[in-house]
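Most newcomers find our protein records easier to grasp once they have seen one. To make this concrete, we reproduce a full record directly below:

…
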Amino acid sequence: MNKLPPGEVGALQRQETRLAWGMLLPTIASVSFIVILPLLAIFWISFKPVELADLRAPAPLAREGLRGKLTAPGDAANIEYRLRNSHSSRAIASVELSDRIPIGIALGELDPRCSLDGQELRCSLGDWEGGHRERLRIPVAATDEFIPGETDIRATEAVATGDSENILVNFQFTVENFIRVFDARDFWSVLWATSFYTVFGTIGALVVGLFAALLLNNSFPGRGFLRGLFLFPYVAPVIAVAFTWVTLFDPFSGSANAMLQQMGLADGPINFFGERPLALIMVTVFEIWRYFPLSFLFILARMQAVDADMFEAADMDGASPFQKFRYLLLPQLFGILSVLFLLRFIWTFNKFDDIFLLTGGNAGTRTLTVNVYEQAFAVSDIGAGAAVAVVIFCCLLVFSVFYFRALRHEEEL
């Protein structure tokens, strides 16, 4: 077989590299558009004092009305323009109002800020502060050219224009959002609740999933049915199972409270989702119950791929079940457990819907993701909500760095 010269081999490799990058470019562009751009937008907004009303730039609004009736030549009335600044706190400069007056209608004395050029009415209204409102009235009369039923002064829409600054696209930045986030008296309690919920929810889901996989790894009658039953918490709609849990653990009408009182384990009703620290424990238990099937599926699939000859040899050597699990099975599961721990940690740290449906973030269950919702929508402070989202991103980034370093160290050992 003929070999290519080194120069031709290098040129061919460079051509293949360019071709590979060219084929990957659409995918890279799509991922960048879907993932990176929203992430950059969150970072951008987190350094701006943006409220919900700032998502649109301030604009002058005009509404035209007729006070009186014009039904025949000689009738008199008033045009009324209701004007306002759409933003409650941000100013608009050089506001102008323009309107076309139909033929057959004559204007009376104009406001000093207004002028009439033919049928075009223009008014220079100056600068408006945030929340500015005013009414502009101009007397009108029907002339001989007025046609009853056809001449309508409101046939043309009054247009108000002005210069305003869109705070989302300017280059003025501030760290006030982060200062408010870290200075909030409940920030550290929110961070503690998030850490507790994430760590114990992740570890609990892995441990319960591992236990379920050990139970169903051996063949026995009804194993298929139990596998399907174990998947129910994960595949069921979250709003349905959350409502079921809230109903079951209701302090007055829930079955759990009635059972505990009848068994003598409780003297009175227990508010499982309304008392500290029980509410945080309950939402963590719900997280474990709902998401252990995912760990169960992956761990069981890995178990069934393990060579059974090792366990037969261990039985011949007299190894105990714990020794077989510790020294044979667990090392085989280390890879899948590491991946599951990373994924479940990130997903649980970002979890919002479960906690919001169960407690609404009350009774010490307010996590960082719930805080994002409350800041951005309940308080209408988009900038503060974005700042909390950036804090979440930084926490996950720090965790990922330490996680991969620890994993690399473990592999080197």
Summary: Strands lie at 60-67, 76-85, 92-100, 105-107, 114-117, 120-128, 133-142, 159-163. The mean pLDDT is 87. The chain has 13 helices and eight strands. The longest strand covers residues 76-85.
